[in-house]
Predict the structure.
Amino acid sequence: MTSHTVDVHADHPPIANQSSRVSAPVLGMFLFIASETMLFGAFFTAYFFVRVVNPEVTTWPPEGFHLPVFVAGINTAILLTSSFTMHWALQSIKRGSRAGMQAGLVLTLAMGATFLATQLLEYSRIGFAWGDNSFTTIFFGLTGLHGAHVFVGLSLLTMATVRAFRGHYTPEHHHGVEV
Amino acid sequence: MTTTEQAHHTQAPPAVPPAGARRLIFGAGWIRAAWMSALFAGIGIGIVTGIRALAGWEPVWDWQPIMTVAFLTAAPIGYLVGIGCFDYWLYYISGRPTRAEDHSSHGAHSWRDYFRVNTDHKVIGVQYVTTTIIFMLAGGLLAMFFRAELARPGMQFIDPQTYNGLVSVHASLMIFLFIIPAFAGLANYVLPLMIGAPDMAFPRLNALSFWMLPVAGVIMLSSFVVPGGAFAAGWTNYAPLADVNPDGNIFFQMAVQWAGASSIATALNFLVTIITMRAPGMTFWRMPLLVWANFTTSLLVVVATPFIAGSQFFLLFDRVAGTDFFRPDGGGYVLGYQHIFWFYSHPAVYIMMLPGFGIVSEVIAVMSRKPIFGYRLMALSLMAILVLGFSVWAHHMFVSGMATWLRVPMMITTLLIAVPTGIKVFSWCATLWEGRLHFTTPMLWALGFVSMFVIGGLSGIYLGAVPIDIHVSDTYFVVAHIHYVLVGGSLFTIMAGIYYWFPKMTGRMYDERLGKLHFWTTFITFNLTFFPMHWIGVQGMPRRVSDYVPEFANWNFFISIASFALGASFVIFIYNMVVSWARGPIAEANPWRALTLEWQVSSPPPIFNFDEIPQVVGNPYEYGVPGARHAVLNGGGARTEELEEVRAH
Amino acid sequence: MRKGAIVTMVVIGAIVGAVVACIAVFVDWLPEQASEEREGIDFVFWLTTWICVGIFTVVASLIIYSVMKFRTSPDDDADGLPIHGHTGLEVVWTAVPFILVTVISVASGVVLARNQDAGNNPLRVRVTAQQFAWSFRYPNGRESPVLRMPLGRSTELRLHARDVLHSFWVPQFGQKQDAVPGIETRLVVTPKKLGRFPVICTELCGLGHAVMRSRAIVMRPAAFRRWLARARANR
Ligand code: HEA
Ligand code: HEA
Ligand code: CUA
Ligand SMILES: [Cu+2]
């Protein structure tokens, strides 16, 4: 899902020895995801301290604050579905169906955009702001970080889609879609 | 400059830039970087004011978010785009055909090439090392300023805000722009060579990592010109002091993001390179210890660095957006900051030490003409430090008011780190035993390191023992510990590495007499400067103070004088480096008679390192073993009988 | 190993050990001891010091001996003995440090537990730190900018901070604790010497950090009681 996936060894003389079964871009992506996971970890750690360790917090969420559970549920469902359409896009190109891939990508894009739009709408109607107290701070922090990642993902996906429509991927060369 | 004389086996002709003003302005380079930074800053300002106007926030023109978004985020991105870090990717993304890789951006043909985006790991390595040395000098100079203030009790030259700013920027530059990236730079140069790879796994990402680095340094230094002064809450930037610091504090928060991004990207690159690009026969148990050291360090970086990014983001949000992560009045939890910060920053001290362990292992084995003692245990102890390193962060918080039950388990893990570290120290000593020691400059630094690091490590044991730490925490005893491990430890190993690989990197030999003079002056003045700090700390002098009681006047005066001499000793170093690089005698390919791969190619190495990927046939440190070989070069399949023969040994 | 080598080793070790031990003994390392907590702290300090003196002596003697014995001229291109390792030795230098740090841990743990214990009749003082001053409030409501304590009775400090982090330290008492906005922290001191000692803020807290100082005055219990009572009368 990022731009590290370029074919870096294009024509280096001499060809480097491939000393692992895993290819470099895939491993790189894996490590990148590990690192991102830790960033989420930092946010959850903040959550942990504010909620569990902090002696001043007794009720969570504080009285008068409600989590938008229903909308969040729908939104999660949208996001989960979008991974199926993404999978479909990938399968299509592996089987050589360019149209299938294009449709899959566009659908995924649309769902991601819906997710973000819903989230933004929810933010504006939620009735509290991030500066109100630590509960709202953590709420916006976690959902915001997640939203930002969906946004970055979507941007990269847009690029992949652009390339897909320009005919860049072939059954043999579809790394950009895979990750 | 000798780089032009290198043996270019398969060299592409240097790219001839098309002439013309258009090219000058729109081609990748410093001019484009300048106007693009301005342009992006403008866009940033537009975005911030636009959003604020739309959302109806008052005032529309608010310095804090503008500074953060426009000057500390957008403008650096503009600079990176302008200098050409993203050229390839932008083509790729927009679906335009990418230029076939013509390697025009490999190798340096004149000194100017060091000021351009270059994807050759050797050029990047040299860029890294010189840049970090410059930041070291800057950080050291700041130390000279505040040492001058500390020479006498009372306030002489500077006010407390400036003092705190100087100390904070000193430490931040030294840590984030000297030690960590200097190790990355040395490894950048030698690691691909050592494992027999033609380059790093992601050369463009590698270039990007390097070019992000000056951004962080310039941001830190420029915080001095912000109204209100530089960030002044120490390099640890504890909340809530950070929240009430002048706006310069944002500069720390953002600089750390840039340095952190650079460091994560490099670490990822090292890991992928080590895992996927080793030469045939280079099993993990045949890797030189420097490679092992960077492998473990990179794991630490990838896992831990996001936490400091997080901690600084939280501070930034608290300050700029008014959130309540660490604000007690809004239900935030102050100590949360320290936990998150140290969860990175303790592993960070091993990030600042493990690569040095690697360098020293190389130097000591080669200069003693002996195999490294207990190779496997050396590698395993690195791994042990890595694992233990994640479970000790709260030893920085023994007096912070965190849950008291956490102290004892953290003390036990902290003290246990002495065991794997001790294994390394004793193994180095045992490597000397019955060796034939050559006291070249790198060897002096390596032995200086072992002795000084033991002192620093042992003062760490005092700090790890909770009752003692309660007494000496936040005093000059800690300052002494910091400098024994970071100067006597990390800096000494970096010096060992620079002198050791200087002939490889520049193709010329440094002046051995000046090198030794530099070592001895630094070694002596270093001890004179920092050893007395143990005593004044235990006696009752707190750290981070611009003024102190007259009781400590004499010692502080002594320390200040010694520290100026310590600073002056680096003049020798700079002179030696500059003059030898320009005019030193041409170096042989393998002046140290080392077995590891980087010494088996010319000095400096050919653009693509090896004509053919070498075949690794044995361990890297088989000095004194008759007939032993580490690798066979330029042989490929033709030499299989020789390989068999070597294996039989 | 030849006998001569062993003798040289021992001599070097003795010299290095003597020098390091002199630094440990003849430098007046610790400030005056004025609290019962300091007894434990000083014990751990000296325990650690002797362990460290031993370790440093071993490492330094090894290096010095090697430097003297195994040095060679630059144009000697022979190699050393190819020793790859020695399991016995490796076990020893893993096990011995392990035991030593266990000793330090146990001693520290015991001392720590003792130093946190305020007994059953402590004097409770509420300490408030703010930029850049200390204030101490006694159970009877009396506030004072200096800390007065009765000799020999445990004083339990309950620390609070108004603005940013501060840290309470009296070197002669050896005890230190941060004051944290939003939570209460706790520290026990049992003074055992009459006198005036400096109270120092050790956590960077802003521009006045260096001068955020006060005094701790240890008084005879009777004098302390009189002071407290007079204070109440004054109010
Ligand atoms: C290169 C960086 C580096 C390294 C390697 C270390 C290594 C260690 N550090 Fe240090 N430390 C810092 C950099 C480093 N530190 C910095 C920068 C700070 C201050 C941060 C700030 O607040 O600004 C700090 C602060 C710091 C503290 C907090 C002090 C305080 O603020 O109150 C503590 C407490 O436990 C500590 C402990 C240790 C220990 C136990 C080790 C161990 O890893 C040391 C292990 C090594 C040895 C012990 C020597 C060799 C071993 C033998 C010869 C075997 C035999 C030994 C025994 C049996 C004891 N360090
Ligand atoms: C790798 C890290 C590193 C390095 C190399 C240094 C190097 C030095 N440090 Fe630093 N220091 C830290 C890391 C480092 N420090 C950290 C982490 C802190 C804690 C900060 C905090 O509290 O937040 C700290 C804090 C710190 C303090 C405590 C400040 C306080 O608590 O109030 C002091 C006090 O003396 C000090 C001094 C020095 C000196 C004299 C050097 C010297 O070694 C510098 C020598 C180098 C030069 C001088 C530059 C080169 C020479 C020239 C440019 C030539 C011209 C100059 C002259 C001839 C004068 N440092
Ligand atoms: Cu209060 Cu420092
Ligand atoms: Cu630590």
Summary: Chain B touches chain C through 87 residues (CB under 8 Å). Residues B 236, 349, 352-353, 395-396, 414, 417-418, 421-422, 425, 454, 457-458, 460-461, 463-464, 469, 473-474, 478, 481-482, 485-486, 489-490; C 55, 59, 97, 100-101 surround heme-A (ligand 1) (CB under 6 Å). Residues 517 and 572 of chain B are 8 Å apart (CA to CA).
